[in-house]
Design a protein that fits this description.
It is a single chain. This protein has 163 residues and is α+β, with helices and mostly antiparallel strands. It has a domain of 102 residues: OB fold (Dihydrolipoamide Acetyltransferase, E2P) (Beta Barrel), CATH 2.40.50.90. 26% of the residues lie in helices and 26% in strands. The chain is built from four helices and eight strands. The strands form two sheets. The protein has a six-stranded antiparallel beta sheet with strand order 3-2-1-5-6-7. A two-stranded antiparallel sheet has the order 4-8. β2 and β3 form a beta hairpin.
C-alpha cells in the first residue's frame, strides 16, 4: 500500500511538471520570440536565457529550424527553454553556439569541452625495419605503368599515328 501511495505522488508530480506540452511553431516574431499554436490559438513565446546580438541572423535561424516543427516548452524565468522535436535540438543554446545571442542563464551556454574519441595507441615499427621487411619485386614492364606492355590486347588499327 505504501509503495502505491509513493507511486501515485510521483506520478502526480510528473504530471504537474509536464506542463511542457508539445506545440507547433507557426511563425517567428523577432530574433527572440516565436509564435506557437497552443490549442488553436496563436501565442507568442519568448526564449529565456538569451540576449540577441544579431537579430536578423537569429530570426533567420529560428525561421529555418522551427517554423512548422513541433517543440517542447519548459518555462524558465519569464520565458521558455525551447526544444525541437524529435531531435531535441535546444534552440536557446543553438542561438548562442552560432554567435547570434549571448547566454544569460547557466543552463544555456554551450559546453566548453572538446569531444574526443579514443581509438587506442599507435606503435609503428622503426622505418629501417619496415623497409628491410618489404619483399623485393621485379620492375614493371615498360608501357602503361600498370605492368602491362600495351594498353589493349586488341589488334592495332591499320591507320598510322597522326603526324
Amino acid at each position: 500500500m505504501r509503495n502505491r501511495i509513493i507511486l501515485l505522488i510521483i506520478s502526480l508530480f510528473i504530471a504537474l511538471r509536464a506542463e511542457a506540452a508539445m506545440v507547433r511553431v507557426t511563425g517567428v516574431a523577432d530574433g527572440r520570440s516565436v509564435v506557437v499554436d497552443r490549442n488553436g490559438k496563436a501565442e507568442t513565446i519568448t526564449l529565456a536565457g538569451v540576449a540577441i546580438l544579431d537579430d536578423t541572423s537569429a530570426r533567420a535561424l529560428l525561421h529555418w529550424t522551427l517554423v512548422g516543427a513541433w517543440v517542447s516548452l519548459e518555462p524558465k524565468n519569464g520565458g521558455y527553454l525551447v526544444y525541437r522535436s524529435p531531435d531535441a535540438l535546444f534552440v536557446n543554446r543553438e542561438l548562442v553556439t552560432r554567435g547570434f545571442a549571448r547566454a544569460t542563464l547557466p543552463e544555456v551556454p554551450p559546453a566548453q569541452h572538446v569531444v574526443v574519441t579514443y581509438l587506442g595507441t599507435i606503435n609503428p615499427a622503426p622505418r629501417t625495419a619496415a623497409i628491410a621487411a618489404e619483399p623485393k619485386t621485379k620492375a614493371p614492364a615498360r608501357g602503361t605503368g600498370s605492368g602491362t606492355p600495351r594498353r589493349s590486347t586488341a589488334p592495332r588499327s591499320r591507320r598510322g599515328r597522326p603526324k
